[in-house]
Amino acid sequence: MTSTQQSAVETGSGQYADVNGISLYYETHGTGRPMVLLHGGLGSGEMFLPILPTLADHHQVILVDLQGHGRTADIDRPLDVALMADDVAALIDHLGLQEPDVVGYSLGGGVALQVAVKYPAKIRRVVTASANIRRNAIYPEMLQQQGQVTGAAAEFMKDTPMYELYQRVAPRPEDFPRLLDKIGEAMAKDFDYTEEVRGLQVPTLVVAADADMAPPSHYVEVFNLLDGGLRDGGWAGEGRPKGGHALAILPGLTHYNLFMSPLFAAVTLSFLDQES
Questions:
Q1: 3-state helix, strand, coil in the chain (%, to 5)
Q2: pTM of the complete model
Q3: DSSP secondary structure of 178-207
Q4: Pairing assessment for the beta strands 33-38 and 59-65 based on DSSP bridges
Q5: Within its chain, how far is the Cα of 42 from the centroid?
Q6: In this structure, what DSSP letter does residue 65 have?
Q7: Which of 238, 241, 233, 239 is nearest to 205 (CA)?
Q8: Using one digit for the tens of pLDDT, what is the confidence trace for 167-218?
Q9: Residue 253's domain spans which residues?
């Protein structure tokens, strides 16, 4: 961690909000238009430390630890993006945020998408990064790997950053096998959010790495559903998607380093700083 990142952590305010039946951990960094930032599976808000100073430079970043992750203890319900979207919406109300932007990566990207689907009036813009809208869009070899994620794998993950993070910050470090079981169960379920995406009313930026967990064509498909990529954009942008949606395929990145990339920060801020 650099001194700048350390400073960002030290100036952040970590608190718990009792919302929607869960004690949700969050930190607040910076000032300005609010941005709710949601991490990926088996991670926490700390994943974004490399880009947090950039994001918090002109924005109030609310860094959330989702159910069962980081400093937020698990509760007796499945790990489900729609339920976690309810948590985020309740946190927005709890904090009195006025139309915040919601930015999510991987699992957090799926949650961000569900917030836009279920609570469009609460938020201003959404960035969903490295999040797939159909399970069968994921590469077959990745689906096979996901099928091997169970609590029994905890012993083999003791040298991984995910395990180290969980042991360091989780309220109940002994719950790591339980988290793996629940993540595995969630990834085994089929899903298809095509129709939900087609009806999105919130301006949405779809972001992916050029070597992500699904092919770039999948994220183009998502953009197509949002009326994007179907015609020439026009000299004045008159052919762009009518809902203000956008697509960014980031070069030289993968699913496993996009969240810390300056490119991700740059396209996110460029999209969020547009006038509605």
A1: 45, 20, 35
A2: 0.94
A3: HHHHHHHHHHHS--B-HHHHHT--S-EEEE
A4: parallel
A5: 12
A6: E
A7: 241
A8: 999 999 999 999 999 999 999 999 999 999 999 999 999 999 999 999 999 9
A9: 3-272
Backbone torsions φ then ψ of 73, nearest 5 degrees: -70, 150
The whole-angstrom separation of Cα 40 and Cα 86 is 17
Distance CA 170, CA 183 (A): 16
228 phi and psi angles, rounded to 5 deg: -105, 150
Number of folded domains that form the chain: 1
Q: What is the mean pLDDT of residues 40-67?
A: 97
What pairing do the DSSP bridges indicate for beta strands 126-129 and 59-65? Answer: unpaired
Please check the confidence at residue 3 and state whether its pLDDT lies above 80. Answer: no
The tokens of 30 are what?
């910076």
Asked if 133 contacts 194 with a C-beta cutoff of 8 angstroms, the reply is yes
Summarize pLDDT for 77-130 with one digit per residue, the tens: 999 999 999 999 999 999 999 999 999 999 999 999 999 999 999 999 999 999
CA 21/CA 146 separation, integer angstroms? 28
3-state secondary structure of 209: strand
How crowded is the C-beta side of 155, counted as CA atoms within 13 Å? 1
Helix ranges (H only) for the chain are: 3-11, 52-55, 81-95, 107-118, 140-146, 161-169, 176-188, 194-198, 216-225, 262-272
| Side-chain half-sphere CA neighbours of 167 within 13 A | 10
H or E element at residue 251: strand 246-254
CATH classification at residue 38: 3.40.50.1820
CA dihedral of residues 147, 148, 150, 155 (deg, nearest 10): -160
Strand partners, 103: 37, 127
Q: Work out the angle at residue 16's Cα, subtended by the Cα atoms of residues 14 and 20, and round it to the nearest 5 degrees.
A: 145
Distance of alpha carbon 144 from alpha carbon 155, whole angstroms: 20
